[in-house]
Write a structure and sequence with these properties.
heterodimer; A: 474 residues; Cytochrome-c3 Hydrogenase, chain B; 3 domains; 15 helices; 41% helix; B: 243 residues; alpha+beta; Ubiquitin-like (UB roll); 2 domains; five-stranded mixed sheet; 6 helices; 10 strands
Amino acid sequence: MSKTITIDPVTRIEGHSKITIQLDDRGQVADARFHVTQFRGFEKMTEGRPFYEMPALTARICGICPVSHLVASAKAGDALLAVRIPETAANLRRIMNLAQITQSHALSFFHLSSPDFVMGFDADPAERNIFGVMQRYPDLAKDGIALRKFGQSIIELLGGKRIHPAWVVPGGVSAPLSEEDRDTILAYVPDAKARLLRTLDWYKGIFGNFDAEIRSFANFPSLFMGLVHRDGRISMYGGNIRIVDAVGNIVADQLPPEKYQEYIAEAVEPDSYLKSPYYKPLGYPDGIYRVGPLARMNIISRCGTRLADQEWAEFRALQRGAVLSSYMYHYARLVEMLYCIERLEQILNDPDILSKHVRAFASPNQLEGIGMSEAPRGTLLHHYKIDENGLIRWVNLVIATGHNNLAMNKGVLQVARQFIRSTKIEEPMLNRVEAVIRAFDPCLSCSTHAIGHMALHVQLLASDGEVVDEVRRG
Amino acid sequence: MKRSQIITFKIDGQDIAAREDETILELARQNGIRIPTLCYLESVTPWGGCRLCMVEVKGTTRLFPACMTYPQEGMEVSTVTEQLTTYRKQVLDLLFAERNHVCSVCVSNGACELQGLAYELGMTHVGVPYLNPSLPLDASHPYFGLDHNRCILCTRCVRVCDEIEGAHTWDVMGRGVDARIVADLNQPWGEAISCTSCGKCVQACPTGALFEKGKSVAEMQKRHEFLPYLALMREGRDGDSEQ
């Protein structure tokens, strides 16, 4: 008799989703699927609004990464204006984006995932949460909170508030950076760097303890995609697309963001509200690729900052070719945070950052605009069409988490096959199925929710729908 | 003009000396007493439409709009009572529910008179169901936009355009909940030939309904302090020509 295990909702991720695991007659895992159960509809509800409102409107997609949407949206707005924005404005946006990536990575690594690292995947879920970490490893928890605060404070200094700042606008930014605020941010840097290096040292010492997880957490060959500079350096704000295969060969390089429809297509699955983009030349579903920290570490030729480059070289030495295990997203996240801190320090030390010329003004000169940037979770794309009066007629958003949809599904199946060997539900195995999703740090939209308080409801169903076993937690 | 007689009356217990041709609202403002308003705009004809300036007068249960009511000798006016606060909140309730006032993404966020009053009166929620109408945004004018979603039909734009600019581009069409501000003969604003693009309507608008194009969220600061001076200068000019 075949059975279905449902994990609903998946916990310690951002947004709402569930996982179903289909067992065959012998109790072996036949299939596993990751379903995103929430629907937002931003592409439709923004129609008819002025494109100038789009950064603020689309920032509401998420309370964790509003800045990522602000940046991609404002870049699409720049394209509609057909202006080249002042370099200082671009650099100020860069700083905010780097701060955003730092705070979001800190949230993912420390608040959401570190309970698994420090207590193990088999630990009691009552303890295996950020509060457990605070009690048993207070220094680690403090570092996480401080690093998140570092990013959020920079966002607040630049944009006036931490969540949904309206400072990034089509044409640039709405206000220049003051000398005082620049100095304040620079003063935060040494502490953040020290905390991060301490965390990296610690994590490099322990991640090897999770060999079974490394082997099975979405560990398979796939393509990797992200933005790079012309010289192959990591690029979080501008640049062009590079795609690398599983052995580390560059499959495509310097693909222009505005031609994304030539190399990316989007499939729609009937059981999820999340679209499944794929690399067009390889078709669906063979064109599976990953984005985000792991992908960025795999595609780049170097980071371009001193400490991050050292860590990056060490990271890439883990595996010949590309690093394939999605468990390594966590490690990659730490290396990226180091890069972000170093890079924003570099930009802030350029005296031009205080220039008062931070905005280009124009009426819309193009009826179609595309903006692409790197969000914490990967490449983010906003594509708008407007009428001659500047009102939105059509929108397409390709969100970072979407790019990873195919890989997350494949990862869920891989982990389920590795860890589920009986029809009896065991909590540690469920935690691992969730943890593979957590490694991708999917942002299934929306704002923050309580950590460790969300109910996990798992049902083991017979093929006729009868509940055979049931577990609740939370 | 007939010579005004000086009378005395009370607002909130404060003795006020007044000319007969001054409204309770004007007198309150001269004496530093705040009465909330939305449709009132200094220098154009009062309209009495928003009902936020309603005040109580001792000896009658009827409420009076301060912007349209002249004081009488010995009158005792109250501007802040529990009843008035309740009524004012209800007026705001209806305004917020009737259209789509989404402050967080509005060009006038932080500089909006409707939002400001909601804060001032301690509004925590809207007490009636939202209508969520589907309303268009007219962006046909080269410099300005009209977002019906944010319009409260205060008619400040209509009056300022008619009485100060003398163009009368704006008017109101339809009734009740279907009422809309229209340009000329219900044309797109950009095609309204009477519009001089002076922008006074935009500055007079208390919300984000009328805005300058290219403004992002919270960037639209309205300035209408200059309107009384402008009105005064034009009155003076008219007066000269009449003599």
